[in-house]
Amino acid sequence: MHEALYQFIRAHYTEILAILPMMLLLTGLVIAVGIDPYIQKRQKRILLIICALVFSLITQNELDHLLSVGQPVVMLRRAVDIYGYSIRPVILLLFLYIVSHRKNFGLCWVLIGINAAIHMTALFTDICFTIDADNKFQGGWPLVKDSCLLASLILLTLLLYFTFRDHLTSKHKEAWIPVFAAFTIFLALLLDSSVADTPQPVSFLTISIVISSVLYYIWLHFQFVRAHERALTAEQRIQIMMTQIQPHFLYNTLATIRSLCLRSPETAAQTIDKFSRFLRQNLDMLDHVGLIPFSQELEHVRIYTEIEMLMFPYIHICYDIKGEDFLLPTLSVQPLVENAIRHGVRAREVGQIDIIVRESEKGHTITIQDNGLGFDPAVVKASDEKHIGIRNVRERLEKQCGGMLHVESQPGAGTVVTLFVPRTVVDKNKGMREGAV
């Protein structure tokens, strides 16, 4: 038995070398798709169907090759070829279902049915193709014999169209993965057409479909990561807003307004106006995921600090702004100023916070410096409440505009927080609409 197996391997070494890597790759893909908890059920089902069809297509290719070089079995070879030419467009249509969110492609299924019907005629006529007495494949009538190629080209065109329409407009680089897969299939069709008379264990189209199956699976994972990032961003925006509207700030502000109503109604009215603007701006931030002008962020900081200074008149804010024509993530400065007030200068007899902005060739630097209590960065814990704002700002600054945040502090000596926003050539309106995420 071992000898027979050895002889078989020797006789079919080329065929085994051609199909074994693809079989192993597809097997790994089936396992990965089957256990993947992240891709949608519909996408998982389509990918598993594609894998099953590709397995059958590889088998069909190998069987057709063996029949073409062995003893003539005309009817069996015709049936094998009919299956191969009928199933290839089906796989391309399933790729289309992955790319597009449309529920069905009725006309495409009609096209596939017509292609299969045309090739079925090979069982009793030669208008599409036939196998002659010398066991050679012979094409039939013009256009009719190329029905599989034409159907495949139409589906490839639709695949590219929906890929460009639904995904490339999002400016996400991973959208080029399905485009590359489609062009790989198109190139394979051209190669198969150029070597139509040469026996091949596996067609170029089959090889490209195996590669494309893996690429589409990778692309679906990128889609999941992108959706997960959007969900995290939305959750983070809510967390940011909640950290900026603390209960104690609400209570203190309302108590201050109540006191002012008795002493200075005009000042109370002004404070109510500032407080409502502060709340409205925080709520507006929830719907904004992009970059905003620094002047808008600075206005938010001024409103917040003016309210705080009414409650704590011994706190002084000094602004030294030189260069404010740039964009940065929303709620980048105000949380840091709030940290400086809440956890720093309130404990001083005279609290001082300096907000300094400087412009350079590389970008803009924002410094928030206070004379508060300070802390030891070496012992800061990630769960410490007063550093949630710093972590949020740092993460958004890095992801949205490639910026940096640096903190220097010593117990009893105050804290210096430095933000760096790199200079980028970006349209202001575009930045406000889209941002960098």
The strand order across the widest sheet is 4-6-7-9-8
Distinct helical segment count: 14
Mean pLDDT: 81
- Poorly predicted runs are 381-385, 425-437
Distance between the termini: 61 Å
Main sheet summary:
5 strands, mixed
Which class of secondary structure composition applies to the elements?
A: alpha+beta
The counted number of beta strands is 9
DSSP helix fraction: 55-70%
Which overall shape is indicated by the principal axes computed on the Cα atoms? elongated
Question: Percent of residues in beta strands?
Answer: 5-15%
- Along the chain, the helix and strand elements come as HHHHHEEHHHHHEHEEHEEHEEH
Fold topology:
Elements: H1 2-11, H2 13-35, H3 41-69, H4 74-99, H5 106-120, E1 129-131, E2 137-139, H6 147-166, H7 176-194, H8 204-244, H9 247-263, H10 265-285, E3 291-293, H11 294-311, E4 315-321, E5 327-329, H12 334-343, E6 351-359, E7 363-370, H13 388-401, E8 404-410, E9 414-422, H14 428-433
Parallel strand pairs: 4-6
Antiparallel strand pairs: 1-2, 3-5, 6-7, 7-9, 8-9
Helix pairs in contact: 2-3, 2-8, 3-4, 3-8, 4-5, 4-6, 4-8, 5-6, 6-7, 7-8, 9-10, 10-11, 11-12
